[in-house]
Write a structure and sequence with these properties.
single chain, four-stranded antiparallel β-sheet
Length: about 120
Amino acid sequence: MSHTVTIKTEVRDATAVRAACQRLRLPVPVNGTHQLYNRHATGLGVQLPDWRYPAVCQLKSGEVRYDNYNGHWGAQRHLDAFLQGYAVEKAMIEARRQGYACSEQQLQDGSIKLTVNVGGAA
């Protein structure tokens, strides 16, 4: 049986953040207080490609703080790719934790099809 799921991503797992960074070949995220133009944000800082300031994952609230000045200081597509990578990594971590096998397929539209095999059924 197949099910389609839509996920609203809250970033709460440091392991999945690190895995998403590795997946996208980003620098290792740094925990601390980070400058975002005229304010600071504390959390796990992710340096996205060509972004002036990091995206800061506040794991307790699940929020990601960032300032890309409406795309002038960083392309939204890089944040979107990070959030997609995080969601896939987190889903795979949780599925494997429960003993399920996972596979993924990159689709032509850029989305990722994640298949979780439960109880030997594919």
